[in-house]
Amino acid sequence: MANLMENTWVFLDAGYLNKIAKYFGGGQPIGYDINQFAITLAKANNLWCKGVFYYTAPPYQSSRPTPDEADRKRKYDRFISKLNKIPDFTVREGRCQKQDGGQYVQKGVDTLLVMDLLSCKEKGIKTIVVLACDTDFVPVLNKLRKEHGIKIILAYFSDYKRRSEFSMSNHILTACDFKFLVQKEHFDAPQFHLDGK
User: Fold this and answer.
1) 98 or 164: whose pLDDT is higher?
2) Measured between alpha carbons, how far is 135 from 118 in angstroms, rounded to an integer?
3) Confidence (pTM)
């Protein structure tokens, strides 16, 4: 695999990560430290986490926010404020759009992730860890591998059930050098710390 303690960047799709955390929490997100989780993913692959990129979107706000919308936004802002204080932790925010039928969808998040992926080469990063399942990332991952020689480690989750919410296209699995199955212990592994203790 990668050289011992080679620098890496960890890219986290917040929507996908939250879905995995809810699975392990039995419907409610399991409690965990996002930055420590990213460090754990890197260390589990013999890599040194040099930076974390976290892709999310603030909760939807109507033109006149309801009390519930305003409360969600306050909690979100508090959460993001804490993340922004972590060294080498970058939050990228898209926007949340309400669709017909009351469904919410994030917009612009994938584009932000692609932009950051393309900056790996100029920053001297040779191996990256990506926690995502969207096949839209396949072209950029293949470009990084084939044109820039960057190794891709795909962190993913599967419950091994057909047609479940964790079913993944094999297409994204072909766009990585290594696949890494996320497990519950990666959310609460206290043995992994930056100081090696």
Assistant:
1) 98
2) 16
3) 0.88
